[in-house]
């Protein structure tokens, strides 16, 4: 019981820090901004393996969730404040609070399912349906991150080059 409470507090602290970081103006490089989505994709694949979701249908469902998250992320990006400095190869953006809430809700759902089933603080894997539902939410969040990066890349690509 105490382990579950501690794990829940750690997750809550993670979500608070994530919300704070997302609400601030962020500077990224056009190349470096793709590191986070790559890590999230690897993490999602690892979670599929750990939660024993290796059936073709489960993998296809998670791929579909990622694909559905991409247009949501692009829409999220269109509501961000974006500044491009091509000479410094830098993109500065600030996310919309509603977009932050959607992303955190998807991530929070993953942890909420794990907490509700008692598997957050224990080594026991989730049941198949709970594991799939929470991994689909994670896939949606990963797609949203990728979609936001696509929007930022488009903004960078269409920005005027500095005059020499």
Going across the major beta sheet, what is the strand order?
A: 1-3-2
Describe the sheet with the most strands: 3 strands, antiparallel
Report the span from N to C terminus. 64 Å
Q: What oligomeric arrangement do these chains adopt?
A: single chain
| Percent helix | 55-70%
Q: Which parts are unreliable, with pLDDT below 50 for 5 consecutive residues or more? A: none
The total strand number stands at 3
**Which shape, going by the Cα principal axes?**
globular
- Reading the helices and strands in chain order gives HEHHEEHH
Provide a count of the helices: 5
Provide the structure class: mainly alpha
Overall tally of structural domains: 1
Q: Nearest-angstrom radius of gyration?
A: 17 Å
Estimate what percentage of residues fall within beta strands: 5-15%
- Overall average residue pLDDT: 83
Short key terms for the protein model shown above:
three-stranded antiparallel sheet; single chain; 164 residues; 8% strand; mainly alpha; 5 helices
């Amino acid at each position: 019981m105490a382990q579950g409470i501690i794990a829940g507090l750690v997750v809550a602290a993670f979500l608070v820090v994530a919300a704070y970081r997302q609400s601030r103006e962020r500077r990224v490089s056009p190349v470096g901004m793709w590191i986070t989505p790559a890590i999230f994709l690897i993490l999602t694949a690892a979670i599929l393996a750990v939660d024993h979701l290796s059936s073709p249908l489960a993998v296809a469902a998670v791929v579909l969730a990622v694909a559905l998250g991409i247009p949501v992320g692009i829409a999220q990006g269109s509501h961000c404040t974006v500044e491009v400095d091509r000479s410094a190869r830098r993109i500065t953006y600030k996310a919309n609070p509603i977009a932050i809430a959607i992303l955190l809700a998807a991530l929070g759902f993953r942890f909420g399912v794990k907490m509700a089933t008692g598997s957050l603080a224990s080594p026991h894997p989730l049941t198949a349906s709970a594991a799939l539902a929470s991994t689909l939410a994670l896939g949606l969040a990963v797609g949203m991150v990728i979609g936001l990066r696509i929007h930022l890349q488009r903004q960078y690509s269409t920005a005027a080059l500095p005059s020499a």
